[in-house]
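Lab meeting, item 3. Inverse folding demo.
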């Protein structure tokens, strides 16, 4: 018994040291890596044609999210959701920044972006690659690293200078890579749209015959096969970029005290992918390495969204969350009781026209898409030079399931209902099937509830008119 007081003193001392350590602990550094137009084309997501050793290794270091979604499958709106924790319908970035009609964040949100909040918290902040959300003053990065991010070796060297900077402040670096986006905006032959190699990367490109058609297209045409193959090579170049960047993080000595987040801004720039609410456009890869929070080689089927990035980053930085966010910290996925039962996506504009707004929601098995202007307008169909829609209209494809699905996508009905368990490609719209009327009504109600909870402006005439007015503006010359 004589030793008991000493044992207690040791416990109290240990508790004091632990508390003091937690109070003085340096907030985590944060590295956010984004791909431009990359879907689930990774080995760790089950793609057997691709070679992505660096991203596969990253997944083994942390948690892979099997059901990660973007807020909107268009670059500027998608990135606006990352920066604000709000869906585009609430943050104001309805379409591309360079559309020329004034798409940008609402005024009250311009001091609530990730770099603005982290700067207030004492972080030094940097961004490499494009920002593509406006206005510029909403993003007070300390350093803007201008780099040709397809030149992966040079880009890594430029990022290294930021990562290795001697400072007592924690850092936030957002590394935005151009791959696998098309090179330029106008239609090009596949080898020009997606260069086979860029500065010698990837070292061993894939060849035609090694890559199958996309699940969401299933179009076995020579032109399309070549385009998809070249796209895969761009994905492999991005993987090489990630490997080089993480190598520089290791050299900086911060590999173990950095939250690493990887995500894409939306799916591939192919019809029924980018600019749609189909899985090919909105279902994206997301990996998080969070020291002390996520285990290694962990996977979860929890629904997560890019609106979750801001709250996750602030959580890791030990900062309070702004009111009214649509997202939540990825830490919550550790608790099954906090998993979402539904997850929503949306669409407004890509450029300034057409205005073809959509709302979508899914549960564990079913997916509903509500096309709000069905019969009055048509969605964008020319996706970065992809000829898939034209090819699908050739006689050999017209009566196939894929050919019919392409026509639905080009001129959709008001509602589309898909059984993702039995129809992962979303080829068979079951909205008009009486057998599924109850599920249709259930998801309609869930979608309406989400729209009401997030103050969707398209639920009111005034809000609709304000958003639709952008489509009536003439872009600046």
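The presenter then showed the designed sequence:
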């Amino acid at each position: 018994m004589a030793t008991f007081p000493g044992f207690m003193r040791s416990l109290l001392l240990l508790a004091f040291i632990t508390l003091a350590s937690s109070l003085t602990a340096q907030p985590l550094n944060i590295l956010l890596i984004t791909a431009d137009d990359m879907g689930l084309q990774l080995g760790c997501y089950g793609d057997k044609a691709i070679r992505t050793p660096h991203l596969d290794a990253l997944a083994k270091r942390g948690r892979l999210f099997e059901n990660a979604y973007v807020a909107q499958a268009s670059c500027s709106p998608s990135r606006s959701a990352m920066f604000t924790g709000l869906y585009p319908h609430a943050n104001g970035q309805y379409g591309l920044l360079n559309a020329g009609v004034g798409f940008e964040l609402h005024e009250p949100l311009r001091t609530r972006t990730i770099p603005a909040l982290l700067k207030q918290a004492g972080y030094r902040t940097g961004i490499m690659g494009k920002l593509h959300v406006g206005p510029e003053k909403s993003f007070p990065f300390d350093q803007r690293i201008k780099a040709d991010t397809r030149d992966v070796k040079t880009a890594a060297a430029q990022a290294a200078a930021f990562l290795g900077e001697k400072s007592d402040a924690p850092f936030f670096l957002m590394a935005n890579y151009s791959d696998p986006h098309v090179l330029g905006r106008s239609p090009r032959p596949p080898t020009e749209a997606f260069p086979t190699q860029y500065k010698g990367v990837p070292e061993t490109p894939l060849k035609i015959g090694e890559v199958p058609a996309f699940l969401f297209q299933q179009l076995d045409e020579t032109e399309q096969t070549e385009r998809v193959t070249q796209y895969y090579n761009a994905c492999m170049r991005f993987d090489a970029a990630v490997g080089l960047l993480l190598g520089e993080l290791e050299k900086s000595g911060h590999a173990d005290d950095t939250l690493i987040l990887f995500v894409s801004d939306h799916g591939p720039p192919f019809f029924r992918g980018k600019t749609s609410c189909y899985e090919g456009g909105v279902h994206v890869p997301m990996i998080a390495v969070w020291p002390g929070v996520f285990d290694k080689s962990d996977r979860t089927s929890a629904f997560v969204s890019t609106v979750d990035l801001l709250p996750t980053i602030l959580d890791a930085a030990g900062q309070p969350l702004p009111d009214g966010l649509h997202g939540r910290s990825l830490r919550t996925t550790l608790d099954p009781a906090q998993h979402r039962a539904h997850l929503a996506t949306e669409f407004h504009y890509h450029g300034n026209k057409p205005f073809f707004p959509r709302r979508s929601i899914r549960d564990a098995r079913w997916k509903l898409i509500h096309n709000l202007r069905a019969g009055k307008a048509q969605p964008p169909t020319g996706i970065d030079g992809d000829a898939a829609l034209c090819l699908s209209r050739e006689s050999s494809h017209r009566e196939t399931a894929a050919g019919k699905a392409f026509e639905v996508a080009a001129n959709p009905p008001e509602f589309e209902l898909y059984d993702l368990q039995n129809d992962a490609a979303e080829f068979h719209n079951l909205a008009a099937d009486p057998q599924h009327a109850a599920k249709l009504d259930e998801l309609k109600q869930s979608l309406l509830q989400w729209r009401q909870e997030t103050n969707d402006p398209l639920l009111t005439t005034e809000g609709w008119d304000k958003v639709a007015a952008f489509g009536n503006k003439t872009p600046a010359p």
